[in-house]
Write a structure and sequence with these properties.
By secondary structure, the chain is mainly alpha-helical. It is built from 18 helices and no strands. The radius of gyration is 22 Å and the shape is globular.
Length: 358
């Protein structure tokens, strides 16, 4: 080894021993926000991962789906959603770690798996998206609600649940009950997603669909990404992979729908200029999927990414369980609830009929 390299190596080792390098890394300006946030996030994150560990233990010993255990254990701890110390970390786990976990799922999926599905899922997603939003407009009008409520709930059901509700809400005209309707939609679609996560795998399996078809249906009909992942991998790894892919097709439609609504609102002179961020975790998912498909990720690294993804997703499901209040959903009014339930049933029935007819 050249003398220069030797001196550099020895200097680095001495610096490590004194802790200079570690201190420099920790004190880096870009890491400062994370370092400051850690004490605030730690209690809730610890709770979510403790539930995830308990769910994993129960699943390993009793053979039931780990996602279902995580959900039920989380719902049993719903009282923590009112705890000021735990809630920031629980919310962080349910949102940020969920997205990281989904992005890392790209390490277990390849284009070979996707190409085997054909163009059917893309057509299914597009048909269900347009039809569900149209049905939302219709049922909202029939039940005496504004068209904005039909678009808001229909878009949330058709695309990606709470995230779509918040994004669409940002570009819709601000009616007097705008904030209340947005809050209702977020709670309703999240709660219905939780119910669907438990019931849909059993219903679709009972209807005689195979694992691939169940994956397509789960990805095409459950509102939120987390519950799609939970329901899919509760059936099998193959079903979970397919469900995730189909669901991300729906998520990819969000910017398109939001831009169209923003253009319509602008032409009507009613847009507030709000910007809607692109769901970057979908970009990360595709980038990792590309790398994995072309063999750019070493086997050991891919295994680590998949394991990390699994823990993040189980913890996120636990956090979502903690945040879920079925009582709050049923207290928000029967008419509004009928709109969202009607859209949910319509989407599920339509997806099943399309899959049966093609």
């Amino acid at each position: 080894m050249p003398k220069g390299c030797t001196r550099t190596r020895m200097a680095l080792l001495r610096s490590l021993k004194r802790g200079n390098v570690v201190t420099t890394i920790i004190d880096h300006p870009r890491l400062q926000p994370l370092r400051l946030a850690l004490p605030r996030l730690a209690p809730g994150v610890a709770v979510a991962f403790t539930v995830a560990a308990a769910a994993t233990f129960l699943a390993d010993h009793y053979g039931a789906p780990v996602m279902l255990f995580a959900l039920l254990l989380g719902m049993a701890l719903h009282f923590l959603s009112a705890d000021e110390k735990c809630m920031p970390g629980i919310d962080f786990t349910a949102k940020k770690l969920l997205r990281w976990g989904i992005a890392l799922l790209g390490a277990r999926i390849t284009f070979t798996q996707i190409s085997s599905l054909g163009a059917g899922p893309i057509a299914l997603v597009l048909i269900c998206l347009v039809a569900t939003i149209g049905f939302g407009l219709l049922i909202a009008r029939l039940l005496g609600r504004r068209w904005t409520f039909g678009v808001l709930t229909g878009g949330a059901v058709a695309i990606c649940g709470a995230s779509a509700a918040l994004a669409i809400s940002a570009v819709l005209p601000k009616d007097p009950d705008h904030e209340q309707n947005t809050l209702f939609t977020v709670i309703a679609v999240t709660s219905l997603s939780t119910i669907a996560m438990i019931l849909y795998p059993m219903i679709f399996t009972a209807l005689g669909f195979d694992t691939e078809q169940v994956g397509v249906l789960l990805g095409a009909t459950i509102h939120d990404v987390a519950q799609v992942v939970g329901a899919g991998y509760a059936v099998s790894d193959e079903t979970g992979d397919i469900a995730t892919y189909v669901k991300l097709l729906r998520v990819a439609m969000l910017p398109v729908v939001v831009v169209l609504l923003a253009v319509l609102a602008t032409r009507s002179g009613r847009a507030d200029g709000s910007s809607v961020p692109w769901p970057l975790f979908t970009v990360a998912f595709v980038a990792i999927l590309f790398a994995n498909s072309f063999g750019l990720i070493p086997t050991g690294v891919a295994t680590f990414m998949v394991d990390t993804s699994r823990w993040f997703l189980v913890a996120a499901i636990a956090a979502l369980g903690i945040k879920t209040s079925l009582q709050a959903m049923f207290a928000l009014g029967p008419v509004n609830l009928a709109v969202v339930v009607g859209e949910t049933v319509f989407l599920a029935v339509l997806a099943v009929l399309i899959l049966l007819l093609v």
